[in-house]
Amino acid sequence: MKSGSWLSLKSANGDYHQKSDRLELGGGVTLYRNDGTVVTTQRSAIDLHAGDATSTDPVQVTGPFGTLNAQKGFTLTGRGSKITFNGPATLTLTQVQ
Question: 19-34: per-residue pLDDT in tens?
Answer without folding.
Answer: 999 999 999 999 998 9
